[in-house]
Amino acid sequence: MNLDALRRFYENLSAADVARMGELYDAHAYFRDPFNEVHGLAKVQRIFAHMFESLETPRFEVREAFGAGDQAFLTWDFSFRVRGRSLRIHGSSHLKFAPDGKVIYHRDYWDAAEELWEKLPLLGSVLRWLKKRLRAE
Question: In sequence order, which residues have a C-beta less than 8 Å from that of residue 75 and are 6 or more positions away?
Answer without folding.
Answer: 62, 63, 64, 65, 90, 91, 92
